[in-house]
Amino acid sequence: MVWEAWDERLQRAVAIKQLHALPGVPEAEAELAKDRAMREARITARLHHPHAVPVFDAVEHDGQPCLVMQLVPSTPLSAVLRDEGPLPLGQVARIGGEVASALTAAHQLGIVHRDVKPGNILITADGKAHISDFGISHAMGDATLTRTGMIHGTPAYLAPEVARGEDASFPADVFSLGSTLYAALEGSPPFGSEGNSIALLHKVAAAQVPPPTRAGELTPFLLDMLSSEPDARPTMGEVTHRLAGIDADAVAPVTAPQDQQSPTAVLPAAAVVPSEAESGLDRLWDPQHDGEHGHPDQRAHDREPSAERRRRLSPWLLLAGAAVVAALVWLLASTLTDDTRGDTVEADGSSTGQTTPTAQPTASEPASPTTAAPTTAAPTTAAPTPTPTPT
Q1: What is the mean pLDDT of residues 148-167?
Q2: Percentage of the chain with pLDDT > 90?
């Protein structure tokens, strides 16, 4: 809960966030939570950045910790997206760049935000972005008061490793910011926003990220930010630099969503469990083979399956060519025969199922030329058979 208040000593308006322990939490754990909040407030107070909401003080009220912060008249990005829908690429890149610059400063101080999401990004009347709510952040190596097994953050924007129970680190903030940018461009986060938190966590842990359709030139880098492997993601400083390179007036064309047969990182949810999904992504995004950040260049990614299809298709094209030549020989020979030709055709026709190569290609391969001539491609064994002459 956040209150607008007046600082009587310094004569200025402030925002006060009151932190409450969860209902039913034992008194000892509630005391630990309060100590953790006060410690994290002191850590966050070290951060001074024009795009981060600063913490002025930490006090107790009725036994509950309260954070005294700068009052920033603004609208949460979540409300902007609700009212306006998906935003243009240039605007999203500018907002993301400002937030990334603040998070870069936080990371340099050893601070991990752990809950980057549209609701914690404040947009002022002049369009500037500010990242807020460092109340659950913690310094790297200073997590001794973190309750074992507790997941901090919002499921729809969590990094996969955090959803699997691992501790949040700098790459987790990169992933959460990538999810936020994805939501601002597409209208919803990569994993959706369904109300079933358990199902949502399953999707996040499985890292099922459908490629965006409105990100334009930012698409490859955004997928880098959303890589399933933390070490494959760019640093927050690299995110700041890349987003600064997007023109402020850029508007990306909307591309058609890729289907399941396309070479994407989408894994069918019903066909895998989280461990299988992770291994599938390892095969698609191998950091040792796929470039600096682990995600392959999109054009190379598209070329590789095409080359593979050509290799698989070559034997069938050769068989099809041989079948056509055999059919032409057979037709030439048949013009010299008498009315027994019909029996020969019928006998040869019975073998079409054994020589036609069209039964083998998979659904992901394009149709081969053999499917256009199912009756003439088969009589490869009948062509050399001599036609009996009348006696």
Answers
A1: 74
A2: 37
Tokens matching residue 79: 């409300």
The one-letter amino acid at 384: P
pLDDT at 1: 78
DSSP 194-210: -S-HHHHHHHHHHT--P
Are 290 and 347 part of one and the same domain?
Answer: no
Q: Name the percent of the chain lying above pLDDT 70.
A: 56
Any long-range contacts for 199-204 (C-beta under 8 Å, 24+ apart)? 200/155, 200/156, 201/155, 201/158, 201/163, 202/269, 202/274, 203/269, 204/155, 204/156, 204/158, 204/159, 204/160, 204/163
User: Which is the catalytic residue, given 57, 83, 115, 302?
Assistant: 115
Note whether residue 388 is domain-resident: no
3-state helix, strand, coil in the chain (%, to 5): 45, 10, 45
Give me the CATH number covering residue 65: 3.30.200.20
The dihedral sign for the CA sequence 355, 359, 362, 368: positive
Question: What is the extent of the structural domain holding 10?
Answer: 2-70
Amino acid occupying residue 388: P
- Does any domain span residue 218? yes
If asked whether residues 278 and 155 sit together in one domain, one would say: yes
Give CA–CA dist 262/305, Å, rounded. Answer: 9
Total domains, the chain: 3
Domain ends where: 70, 94, 128?
A: 70
Tokens standing for residue 224: 């880098």
The question of whether 290 is a catalytic residue gets the answer no
Which residues, in sequence order, are bridge partners of residue 129?
123
- Please tell me whether residues 31 and 15 are part of one structural domain: yes
Q: Is the pLDDT of residue 209 over 70?
A: yes
- In a domain, residue 309? The reply is no
Q: What is the biggest distance separating any 2 CA atoms in the chain, rounded to whole angstroms?
A: 125
